[in-house]
Amino acid sequence: MPAEERKIVIIGAGPAGLTAALECLRRGVGHVTVIEQEDLVGGISRTVAHNGNRMDIGGHRFFSKSGEVMDWWAGILPVEGEGTPPASAETLDRIILLRHRLSRIFYLRKFFSYPISLSGETVRNLGLKRMLAIGVSYIRACLFPIKPEKSLEDFIVNRFGRRLYETFFRDYTQKVWGVPCKDIAADWGAQRIKGLSITRVLAHAFRRLLPSSGGIDQKHVETSLIERFWYPKYGPGSLWEAVADEVRALGGEVLMGQRVSRVHWEHADGHARVSGVSVCDAQGRETLLPCSHCISSMPLRDLIRQLGDGVPEPVRQVAEGLVYRDFMTVGVLCRRLGNTRDGQPLQDNWIYVQEPDVFVGRIQLFHNWSPWLVADKSKFWLGMEYFASEGDQLWTMPDEEFTALAVRELVKLGFVRAEDVEDTVLLRVPKAYPAYFGSYGRVGEIQTFLDGIENLYPVGRNGMHRYNNMDHSMLSAMRTVDCISGHGEKSAIWKINAEQEYHETRSNA
To answer: Does 260 or 118 have the greater pLDDT score?
Structure first.
């Protein structure tokens, strides 16, 4: 089909959807219409403003081992220090900053390096007896690994030993996912921490002693261990807002506040194809958008529902059995912070809270990601992050009650005094994390069915039900545009973050 006749409908204005839209327009693939049900672009990578303060949902490091992705970001916003004046961060609103990463674990009311290192601090915090037990356990795991690896528990124990797993992985992971590690597929580890192990942590610690350029290039470093990353001055959403602006400038449409009500498809001449997408606005008015190609980043479960009749019953059952983990962040603005130990301000980007006596899973320090995320730079702007499932105790708690819980836990952990809290806000994000349990083991059946619909392309984290990082989602979109333009195969899309070349060991953040 000639490019001028192609009408490409893209569901979702997150990283995958907007990357696909801009790539289509830059390559002259066809006319693009992006459908977004929220009032902000960026998906889970959006930036939410409250009283002049900005919240990053989950924390987004802009780093990838894919040069294609790094160049793409740099082509959207100028990078501080690379062709920009020295004072550019002060004078430019849309700019990428080079940031230094620090994240730690808070356990036993003490700080531990993340990832865990065999440092003097770790030995002092855990005690010699615990350290010896961890060492013996690790040796045992090396000599007698669990085969085959059937669960995330098996995966982590094989790489760190059972004692270290029980100390730093087991309880935190259950807090995140709401189920034990033994009930989560090993695929999660393969897609998130495949390249991380004690030997790699030690090798990284040794390399830190060597001279460093201080730049962004860290291709020899596991993604989980990177120490420098890019970050947009006003949060990740500002980059995706710039992308949406460029999509519009190139003639594309970005329809906000529009909900997909049906994806129309049909069989003809032995082929299955999408013919259009119906959308509803806030007033319930429905519009049919005819299309030659449909790119979907909506949750797989919802996509199967919107395809309506004709979906095989086994595929529908798998889709209905897919599980998602939801996410809540409480923004807390305060005058001062405690728990500095050495009297110095906390420099962490985020802190993993391992303590079993609180619900909070992580604490973001937004002002350390970028000082421009907080309106008053003399204040401290935190994000208390909670993991929940729609309908459970945390998710259904009234907003005022939940924000009060977050402040109590922040005080209990010693990070702030109640009288120093000036403002709070609660943000709920449904379907933030596709889960690797439920019917996930049969997700290939959905993939096979969707591959049979010639012009339908699932992309992104929820679109593929895969725990992608931002650049994985972007790469899935880029490979999709390759297919539409006649320069790629659908199989390449599903290989993103599934084969070694796309894991954190080599190609990605």
So the answer is: 260
